[in-house]
Design a protein that fits this description.
The structure is a single chain. By secondary structure, this protein is of the alpha/beta class. The radius of gyration is 20 Å and the shape is globular. The longest helix has 24 residues. The strands form three sheets. Strands 3-2-1-4-7 form a five-stranded mixed sheet. It has two domains: 112 residues, ATPase, nucleotide binding domain (Nucleotidyltransferase, domain 5, 2-Layer Sandwich), CATH 3.30.420; 168 residues, Nucleotidyltransferase, domain 5, CATH 3.30.420.40. The mean pLDDT is 94.
Length: 304
Amino acid sequence: MKDKFKIGIDYGGTKIEAILMNDKGDEIKRERSEYDRNYESGISTVKKFVEVFKKESSKEATVGIAIPGYSSKETGLVHNANSIWLNNKHFKKDLEKNLNCEIKIMNDANCFTLSEAIDGAGKDFKSVFGIIIGTGFGSGLSYKKEIIEGANQVAGDWGHQPLPYPTQEEINSKIKCTLPTCGRPLCAEQFISGAGFAKNFNLKHNTNFKAPEIVALDKKGDPKANKEFELYEDRFARLIAVMIGIFDPEAIILGGGMSNTERLYKNLPNIIPKYTFTDKVRTKILKNKHGDSSGVRGAAWLWD
């Protein structure tokens, strides 16, 4: 029986990654490239990858793409993309014209979640909540290996909601989102994303550390870093408790740079019950299996 090939594209803010897989999920080829941060350069880079990979697969391959936003089912226009040159553009239509084939397109957090649900850390669970904690803070829902997009195509994406049960210190911080599409006070992304975590630490201590450097400080026993992580874990637990109360997933899979912080997997399960209305929290908090590859693999799986 002839293999069916899948091309997945992960459209990042500075790099575009592409993967060629067979129908079993085996990786055949992978490439990554920087591109000029504009609409035309992104399309030409995607086209180059697809042409090369289709030659590799005898011109028979489906194409899926993960983007940092979503393409409206009603208008086809892209919204909420942090690669701002994609916003209000017919990206899917323009790509299909350039590639001369049909494509499927979905939010990158959804693609991450789909990848981990199909053959990643969540493969043994029916309901999965995937969370990307990197420069931003995004998430997606999967049930029975399918993505739940929702009526407004934002199901599960609670990264720009206010922190629940805010402390007086958090209220006094006056922290709010700077994105014009959000602008909310106490926006969760400003506390939980890697960039927000580092910014809050640096403001308190007049330093200029990046998140991985603060993680390293904590491992060395630095009391300031340890205190900031205690605050971070409590905030994250509050947010997770809200999602458990709504979707009640069997597994929560963490991705992005902050997912490499090992203490989260030890401490979060002990804090979440404090904020959850149940006799026992059975939801597993798991590290991703495919790492940075989950988005591009999820894009490839969109045709399944």
